[in-house]
C-alpha cells in the first residue's frame, strides 16, 4: 500500500502553515508537501516537521504574478532570468527546510510558441538541475479545463521534455487527477512512464475532492503502484468537501 503525503496547499486551509503541519502529523500522515511556503521561514518549517514527525517533500517554484494569471515562467521565452531567480529562491528554501523536490512551473504559452517554449524550458531545466543536483525537479502538466493555456497537459509531453533535458534528477509528477481530466487511460500511462515518475498525486476525478468518489477507483491505482514496485510517496492533493479531518476516511479505508 502506498505511503501518503498531505499536500498542505489544499488540506487544512483554515490554518497557518505551521499548524497545518502539526495537523497532518496528528492525522497520521508521515510526509507533507507544500505549494508556495516562502512567507514562512524555512527553519520554522523544518522544526515543525520534526516535531510532527513528518518528512518534508516538494515545493513549487513561484507562479509569478498570480493576479495576472501567471502559472510559472519556465517555458516563457524572454523571462529566463526571472525563472532562474525563482529557482534560486526554491533551492535555498528547500535546502534550509530539508525538502527533497521542486516542482518547476512551466507557465502559460500560446500553442504557436510551443516549440520555442520547449527550447526555453529545456535550457532552464538544465541550468536548474546543475544548481541543485541533489534535489528532484518535477514536471507536472495541468489539465486544460482548470489551467487553459498552460504549456503542457500530457504525460508524453513531459517525457519528451525530460528526454531533451537529459538530466537524471528531472522527473514526472504523475497527478492522477490531472491525467484523468486531460487524457484518461491512467493505468496504461502509469505502466508506460513509471521509470520517469518521481512523485504521484491523487484526487477524485472530476471533482478534485477526496479520492473516494468519481471516475477513478483508487484501490486499483494503489494495487497497480504496488505491482509496479513504486516506492515513492503518494500526495493527497485534493480540495476537501468539508473539513479536512472529517474527510480522512478514504485514508483509513486504504489501510
From TrEMBL:
UniProt keywords, alphabetically: Isomerase, Pyruvate
Domain of life the protein comes from: Bacteria
Single GO molecular function: hydroxypyruvate isomerase activity
InterPro entries: HyI-like, Sugar_Epim/Isomerase, Xyl_isomerase-like_sf, Xyl_isomerase-like_TIM-brl
EC number: 5.3.1.22
Chain coiled-coil ranges: none
GO biological process: glyoxylate metabolic process
Annotated active site: 140, 237
Residue span, Xylose isomerase-like TIM barrel domain: 22-253
Record Gene3D superfamilies: Divalent-metal-dependent TIM barrel enzymes
SUPFAM superfamilies: Xylose isomerase-like
Signal peptide: none
Matches recorded under PANTHER family: HYDROXYPYRUVATE ISOMERASE-RELATED (PTHR43489:SF6), ISOMERASE (PTHR43489)
Family note: Belongs to the hyi family.
Protein name per the record: Putative hydroxypyruvate isomerase YgbM
Organism: Variibacter gotjawalensis
Amino acid at each position: 500500500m502506498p505511503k501518503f503525503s498531505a499536500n498542505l496547499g489544499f488540506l487544512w486551509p483554515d490554518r497557518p502553515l505551521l499548524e497545518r503541519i502539526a495537523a497532518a502529523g496528528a492525522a497520521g500522515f508521515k510526509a507533507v508537501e507544500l505549494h508556495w511556503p516562502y512567507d514562512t521561514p524555512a527553519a520554522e518549517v523544518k522544526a515543525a516537521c520534526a516535531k510532527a514527525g513528518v518528512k518534508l517533500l516538494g515545493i513549487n517554484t513561484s507562479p509569478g504574478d498570480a493576479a495576472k494569471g501567471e502559472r510559472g515562467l519556465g517555458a516563457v521565452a524572454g523571462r529566463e532570468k526571472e525563472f532562474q531567480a525563482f529557482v534560486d529562491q526554491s533551492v535555498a528554501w528547500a535546502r534550509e527546510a530539508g525538502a527533497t523536490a521542486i516542482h518547476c512551473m512551466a507557465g502559460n504559452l500560446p500553442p504557436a510558441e510551443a516549440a520555442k517554449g520547449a527550447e526555453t524550458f529545456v535550457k532552464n531545466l538544465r541550468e536548474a538541475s546543475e544548481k541543485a543536483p541533489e534535489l528532484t525537479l518535477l514536471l507536472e502538466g495541468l489539465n486544460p479545463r482548470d489551467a487553459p493555456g498552460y504549456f503542457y497537459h500530457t504525460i508524453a509531453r513531459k517525457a519528451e521534455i525530460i528526454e531533451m533535458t537529459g538530466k537524471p534528477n528531472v522527473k514526472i509528477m504523475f497527478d492522477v487527477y490531472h491525467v484523468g481530466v486531460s487524457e484518461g487511460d491512467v493505468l496504461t500511462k502509469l505502466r508506460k512512464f513509471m521509470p520517469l515518475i518521481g512523485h504521484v498525486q491523487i484526487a477524485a476525478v472530476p471533482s478534485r475532492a477526496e479520492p473516494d468518489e468519481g471516475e477513478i477507483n483508487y484501490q486499483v491505482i494503489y494495487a497497480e503502484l504496488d505491482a509496479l514496485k513504486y516506492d515513492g510517496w503518494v500526495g493527497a492533493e485534493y480540495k476537501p468537501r468539508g473539513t479536512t479531518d472529517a474527510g480522512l476516511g478514504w485514508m483509513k479505508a486504504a489501510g
